[in-house]
Amino acid sequence: MGRTQSLGRDFGWLWAAYAASAVGTWLALDAFPLIAILVLHSSPAQVSLLSAAGLAVGALIALPLGPWVEFRRKQPVMIAMDLLRLAALLSLPAAYLLGGLTFTQLVVVSVVVAAANIVFTAASGACLKALVRKEDLLKANGRFESTMWTATVIGPPLGGALIGVFGPLTTVVVDAVSYLLSALGVRAIGGHEPRPAPRNDKGFTAGEMLDGWRFILRHPQLRPLFLNTSLVNGLIMATAPLLAVLLLGEEGFAPWQYGLAFGVPCLGGLLGSRIARPLVSRFGQHRVLIVSGALRACWLLGLPFVGPGIPGLLLVVLVELGLITCMGVFNPVYATYRLERTTSDRVARVLSAWSITSSATIALLTLLWGLLASLVGSRTAIAVAGVLILCTPLLLPRREHAAPADRPAEQVRQLT
Questions:
Q1: What is the distance between the alpha carbons of residues 402 and 340, in angstroms, rounded to a whole number?
Q2: Do 23 and 181 meet the contact criterion of CB atoms below 8 Å apart?
Q3: What is the pLDDT of residues 77-108, one digit of tens each?
Q4: From CA 77, how far away is CA 84, in angstroms rounded?
Q5: Signed CA dihedral, 335, 340, 343, 344: sign only
Q6: Residue 351 and residue 229: Cα distance in Å, rounded?
Q7: Hey, is 205 helix, strand or coil?
Q8: Per the UniProt record, which residue ranges are transmembrane (predicted)?
């Protein structure tokens, strides 16, 4: 099988599994808040709590699971997390049909899904590094990124149509089925993962649970990248609900205009992910990482200036298109950069620590910016985030260092 055409059968199944779950996730975008509002008639405070609790508590639960994943075979862990998400999500329509769906159950399911997402991400990153050669990692991550943005373009409109016809629980069922398809895809990956070396002790110490953060913070390139991505993602996500209030409330955008304003720019993410590899080939990985990372921080400040009508809509589309295109370039390059600089016997712990920190940061900043917006207004709160995010390029790794090769012993341990 030609190297330029394919990354191999095993990667193909991993990619198919990712595609299935990505489509399901974006089809079910905002399903939980919609269920809380339309089915359970929850208050705005409860809806905010639902979003923050899922991320924060899910991250807390996932904390001890990073080292646990490291010493387990990765494919069974991924399958288990898919089946856990399948069962958790299906419990919602089942409870609804039985007349017993509650807000508490919705929060619990959101927590379980958030924790399972973190564990699956850690295991799949380790699995990817074992399946794909180092020189093909950027190609593989670019395909994941393209798939994600394609799902982003088609998922929310289709999900909105399904919700309009069948109700918000419909997309939850579709999302649940997508995890079943993902589990089948992972199961189809060939090869046999050797069992990990047995551990002498039982359980994991606090030091082992923190080992992912210790590795990141001691690494001269990963440390600034870790801080940069956590803050950028947190600030962008913290402004998302405020932007919805600004556009749908203060500026009077119709729901279809709101969907259009964020659906069309996702094509930029698809474009960015397709050109990332050629850009790296021409300009080098470090330069593309720095430039795209800096450019993605320049767009948020344009959103506070949005006004009503077609000019306002065009401004949002332009800003989001620029932001998402830069993210489409940056994300696969940064994911590859991170994997190349993480030793194979630490991948699951590092990715778990990274995801936990990202989820916790988004939850915290969302709560803080909600409070700030209640004091100064949504527009001003978004402007504050836009100013702060301009400082984040200072945290990108400034010096270019080649990724160290893993020692053979570490490579063997990674396959466990």
A1: 9
A2: no
A3: 999 999 999 999 999 999 999 999 999 999 99
A4: 10
A5: positive
A6: 13
A7: coil
A8: 12-39, 45-65, 77-97, 103-128, 225-249, 255-276, 288-307, 313-335, 347-372, 378-396
In angstroms, how far is CA 405 from the centroid of its own chain? 27
Residues of the chain with pLDDT under 70: 1-6, 44-45, 48, 191-208, 255, 400-416
Cβ atoms of 153 and 270 within 8 Å: the answer is: yes
Give the three-class secondary structure for 199: coil
Residue pair 123/77 in contact by the 8 Å Cβ criterion: yes
Please report, for residues 114, 124, 183, 194, 229, the alpha-carbon distance to residue 75 in angstroms, rounded to integers and kept in the order given.
19, 8, 9, 11, 27
Provide the 10 A C-beta neighbour count for residue 279. 17
- What span, in angstroms and rounded, lies between the C-alpha atoms of 303 and 398? 29
What kind and span of H or E run contains 115? helix 103-131
Q: What is the pTM of this model?
A: 0.79
Task: Choose among 340, 329, 310, 336: nearest CA to 405.
Answer: 340
Amino acid residing at 342: T
How far is 22 from 182, CA to CA, in rounded Å? 9
H/E run at residue 16: helix 9-27
Tokens of 333: 């390059």
CA dihedral 180, 186, 192, 194 (to 10 degrees): -90
Q: Match 């069922």 to its residue by tokens.
A: 173
Q: Up-side HSE of residue 27: CA atoms within 13 Å toward CB?
A: 22
Nearest 10 degrees: Cα torsion 332, 338, 341, 344: -100
Q: Helix, strand or coil for residue 342? A: coil
- DSSP states of 278-326: HHHHHH-HHHHHHHHHHHTTSSGGGGGG--SHHHHHHHHHHHHHHHHHH
Q: Which of 189, 161, 178 is nearest to 19 (CA)?
A: 178
Structure tokens at 240: 């998302």
